[in-house]
């Protein structure tokens, strides 16, 4: 009951403040000369969004950069010492290496598998059911996916009953059980497999929508000209959906760079499975070294920014060619 007045104030106050801003802004704009109205009105309407971006995005980014140049308690200025740690510590080098592995295998497999399933399911009468089944893992959180697959990968020494599904199947077939999350480098691939299982459905849905946008006349004309199915896919379908493939690939790259949930739940970075985001969490909350955590965050941001810039440039190119 104590939170009820605050909730009511939020429900009523936010729309009231928005309406008040609209009325006041329009009245002020009407006072300006006609020539200035067109130039001022867009900035007046963009002002709230720009303010929110400045408060919740720009300022935190600059503050993180400032903290990354200071010591563990954010008191003394240490310059680039934290960045030297990021690129010189053995554990951080393992994390950087693992993120590269995630970037290559996770992105490649999810996009390729998603495209394959999208193309194949587009040609069967039960495509809706097939895509729904593939998309189902997206309905659960990554933490839940990690818990599920941790039980799937569970390992017990040879001779003991295997509670993990995969090892139970292996022992039933006469093979030795495998420590999927302990043995390197297969443990990193095992973690990536969980992410692929989770994200492939997303790729399938987006790429399927792009396939539906290809006119049937174009495909029929290709078949009439004598092109086989592989040639149609390579020279017709793939070029037409390449912008969508680029969007999906960009999304997967960003997720691979900031992978955290699955690693944290399943191994917590042990057995050489550390990744950048998990290491940042440990530096922040386990070791209480705010400078190093901020430096890792800045490195992660700088790794993502080029991908976003490429995406923006591609969008602009598409708009210019339309």
Can you offer a commentary on this structure?
With 322 residues, this protein is mainly alpha-helical. The protein is 75% helix and 0% strand. It is built from 13 helices and no strands. The longest helix has 34 residues, at 34-67. The chain starts with a helix and ends with a helix. 24% of the residues are buried.
**End-to-end distance:** 56 Å
Individual helix count: 13
CATH topology of the largest domain: MetI-like fold
User: How would a crystallographer describe the biggest sheet?
Assistant: none
- SSE run: HHHHHHHHHHHHH
Percentage of residues in helical conformation? over 70%
- Mean pLDDT across all residues, rounded? 88
- Tell me what the CATH architecture of the largest domain is: Orthogonal Bundle
Number of domains: 2
Whole-angstrom Rg: 26 Å
Beta-strand percent range: under 5%
Write the CATH homologous superfamily of the largest domain: MetI-like
Residue stretches low in confidence (pLDDT < 50, at least 5 long) are none
Identify the CATH class of the largest domain.
Answer: Mainly Alpha
Q: Strand tally, please?
A: 0
Determine the structural class based on helices, strands and strand pairing.
mainly alpha
Categorize the overall geometry: globular
């Amino acid at each position: 009951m104590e939170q009820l007045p605050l909730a009511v104030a939020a429900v009523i106050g936010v729309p009231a403040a928005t309406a008040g801003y609209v009325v006041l802004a329009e009245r002020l704009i009407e006072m300006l000369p006609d020539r200035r109205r067109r130039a001022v009105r867009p900035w007046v309407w963009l002002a709230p969004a720009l303010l929110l971006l400045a408060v919740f995005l720009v300022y935190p980014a600059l503050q993180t950069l400032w903290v990354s140049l200071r010591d563990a308690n954010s008191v003394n200025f240490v310059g680039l010492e934290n960045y030297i740690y990021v690129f010189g510590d053995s554990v951080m080098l393992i994390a950087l290496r693992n993120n590269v592995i995630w970037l290559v295998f996770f992105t490649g497999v999810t996009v390729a598998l998603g495209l394959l399933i999208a193309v194949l399911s587009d040609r069967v009468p039960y495509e809706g059911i097939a895509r729904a089944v593939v998309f189902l893992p997206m309905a659960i959180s990554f933490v839940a996916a990690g818990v599920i697959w941790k039980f799937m990968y569970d390992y017990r020494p040879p001779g003991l009953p295997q509670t993990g599904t995969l090892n139970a199947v292996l022992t039933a077939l006469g093979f030795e059980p495998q420590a999927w999350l302990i043995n390197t480098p297969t443990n990193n691939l095992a973690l990536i497999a969980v992410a692929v299982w989770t994200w492939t459905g997303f790729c399938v849905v987006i790429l399927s929508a792009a396939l539906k946008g290809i006119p049937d006349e174009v495909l029929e004309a290709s078949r009439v000209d004598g092109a086989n199915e592989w040639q149609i896919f390579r020279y017709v379908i793939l070029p037409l959906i390449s912008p969508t493939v680029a969007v999906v690939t960009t999304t997967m790259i960003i997720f691979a760079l900031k992978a955290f949930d699955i690693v944290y739940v399943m191994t917590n970075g042990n057995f050489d499975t550390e990744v950048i985001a998990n290491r940042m969490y440990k530096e922040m909350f386990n070791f209480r070294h705010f400078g190093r955590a901020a430096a890792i965050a800045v490195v992660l941001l700088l790794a993502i920014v080029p991908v976003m810039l490429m995406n923006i440039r591609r969008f602009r190119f598409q708009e210019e060619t339309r």
